[in-house]
Amino acid sequence: MTTDNRLSSYRTTYLLPWIIYLTPSLRKLITFVICAVLTPHTYATQEFIQLPINNIKAQHKGYVRVGIFQPKNRSAHGDILFLHGHADRLDNHPTLFNTWTQAGFRVISFDWPSHGLSRTMPIDTFTFDELAAIAILVEKQTAAEKERPLILAGWSFGGLVATRISQQANLHRIFSRPVTALLLITPGIAVHPFSGGDGVARLSTLTNNPNPPVAGPPSPALPIQNPLFAIRLLAAAWQAQQQAQGNRI
Predict the structure, then answer these.
(1) Both 97 and 3 in a single domain?
(2) Global pTM exceeds 0.85
(3) Which stretches within 84-210 are classed as H helix?
(4) Do 110 and 15 reside in the same domain of the chain?
(5) Is residue 49 part of a domain?
(6) CATH number at residue 201
(7) Helix/strand/coil (H/E/C) assignment for every residue in 121-138
(8) At residue 138, does pLDDT exceed 90?
(9) How many folded domains does the chain comprise?
(10) For the chain, what is the mean pLDDT?
(11) What does each C-alpha distance from 12 to 21, 22, 182 come to in angstroms?
(12) Burial class for 74, CB neighbours closer than 10 Å (0-12, 13-18, 19+)
């Protein structure tokens, strides 16, 4: 066998399997690079408003910050209401929102009480139904075309709230229009009473990216900083599991 033939055989026998094996990872990497690096955030408009929530609780003065992101050079064919997680904020998700707006969706999100740039009473003072009512209020106040499909999306704690809304007809029926789809990203349905390590949420424990595209560090970093909220979260997660399994609660 000649040197060229041996080299060709080596490439076929040893390198090709590795190329095939790495293909899924390479695809993910290429997708991430295109979305996060090569593609700028091309929202047609970004609008931020301060939405008063005193009609949720009369004694709760203040507001939640709401962000509205429109697709560029096209009319939206659906609205996505995104509920972020605990220790999170709406402007921590530019790549996700950009992907959705490029696909033709209008994205609406907001900062929960005690999170981001919302300024109202602590999240401890709100029941889960009242937090759901904030999400419903945001949707009603930002609805531009009520015949446009509404997708309810949530990540982590926000995914738990979205789940509980979908499980309770008295809640999901009071949106301005029917919820046509539920999009859950690692919803906080099977939560643990105690988190690993020292229990503090840090960027280093949430992502391997040394320079994550976030607007700020996790805050509140500890659920126990809001003990009533932490208890309600565990109770709501248990209720979500029970109802998903068909058990009466």
Answers:
(1) no
(2) no
(3) 94-102, 128-142, 157-167, 169-172, 203-206
(4) no
(5) yes
(6) 3.40.50.1820
(7) CCHHHCCHHHHHHHHHHH
(8) yes
(9) 2
(10) 81
(11) 14, 15, 46
(12) exposed
Range of the domain at 25: 1-38
> Cβ atoms within 10 A of the Cβ of 146, count?
11
Pairing of strands 63-70, 150-155: unpaired
Structure token pair of residue 112: 């929960």
Shared domain for 67 and 100, answered yes or no, is yes
* pLDDT band at 151; cut points 50, 70, 90: very high
Buried b (16+ CB within 10 A) or exposed e, 5-43: eeeeeeeeeeeeeeeeeeeeeeeeeeeeeeeeeeeeeeb
- The pLDDT confidence band at residue 8, using thresholds 50, 70 and 90, is very low
Same-domain status, 130 and 161: yes
pLDDT at 224: 72
Q: How far is CA 204 from CA 45, 83, 155, 185, 207, in A?
A: 32, 22, 18, 20, 6
Look at residue 249 and tell me if it is in a domain. Answer: no
